[in-house]
Every structure is written in C-alpha cells, then in structure tokens.
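ESCALATION

Customer reports they have been waiting on this structure for their group meeting. Please prioritize. Original submission:
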Amino acid sequence: MMQWRQSGSAWIGGSSDHQPEWVVCWLHGLGATGAEFKPVIEALSYQWQASVEWHVLQAPDRPVTLHGGRVMPAWYDLYGLSENATQDVVGIQAAAQNLQHWCQAQLDRGLQSRQIILIGFSQGGALALYTALTMPMTLGAVVGLSTYLPLTDQLSQAVVTQSAPICLMHGDQDPLIPSSAATATHTHLKQLTQGAVDLFWYPMGHTVCPEQIDRLIQWLRALSPREA
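Update from on-call: job pushed to the front of the queue and completed.
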C-alpha cells in the first residue's frame, strides 16, 4: 500500500527518494477530488516499478457556469460542452500559470524538466495539455485522459516548443467529450508540438477502464530514463 502525505491541498505519495526518477503531477476532472484517483495511481505505481513521486493536486472550489453557478472543484470556469462554447480564457491561463509554478518548484529542488510528467483527466487533462504547450521547458511526458485541447485558436498563433511525448486516451462512447473532440485534439497536437502524439481508444464512456491502465503502464515504461 502506497504511503500518502498531505501538503496543503495536494497529496504526495510514492518514492521517498529526494530525487526520484520521475515526479508525476495528477490533475482530476471537474467536480471531483484528487483523492478519488489514489487507487488508479497505486495500481500504476505498483506495476510501473520505477522511482516515482506522485503529486495529486486539488482544484479550488469555484462557481461553474455550466452547472448553474454551483460551487465545486474546478481548475477554471466552464460555460458549455460544445465545440463553439465560450471558454474561460483568463481562468485557463491563470490555472496554467499555477501549474507552471509547480513545475518550477520541482526544478528548484534539483530535478530536471524531463523528469516531470503531467497526467490529467477531463478538465485536468485539458489543463495539462494547455500548460505543456505554453511553457518554456520540455517535460518528460504529458497524458490526457478523456479530454480536449482548450484555446486552440490562441495556441495556433503561438510559438510552441514542447517536444515531450503525449499520450491521449479516450472512450468511443463518451457522452461529455465526444470522439470528434478527441480526434481534433490529436490533430492539433500533432501540428503544434514537436514530439510523438499517441491516441488510444477504448469501449467506454467518460471514465477510466482497466485495459486503459494496462496500456498506460506500458506507455510509461517505454519513456526514456532521465539524463545523468
């Protein structure tokens, strides 16, 4: 059983090494809590068999327009689920800046940027992807589960230098983020980034399935080890 400790609003578990091989930031979806993903993370960690420190961040509570202003954990406001829905530009950028600060804190403790992995589900995945594409450092990897790429018009006008491998996983029966959004995200990322972008499909809705976790473990194991 993985040992967890709380630091502010985040949960930290896994390797007790001062400088682990990898440090992974996990971002939950809208209305959820990071703690809900602890069993998934523990399964990943057990089978990955690498020195990994997991940081499970918690989004602040805020009113969400999509849900009538109800207050819930959210990385930014959400106005709608359609492709043409208005997006919370200020909120997305602020959340990305906070995540970049978290990444910088890992560098300040002596880690390299290529040892950092961002993994996010749904809205958390959108934040992970957007942050990776708007930051100056090259990460070890980015994983987006049942998610989409926000602010694509803005990103298409920016200079993107991210070359980390990206893994997208999506359910072909997702009622919230349709398969067309996943396909469009895959296309945008291949055009914008300089690294490999994989897209894997699963017969599921807006969730996580065991087959997906098994594939993700294989994908993570194939990442290059950190530089000496």
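Sent to customer with the following note: Helices lie at 38-48, 89-108, 123-134, 152-156, 179-192, 210-221.
Escalation resolved.
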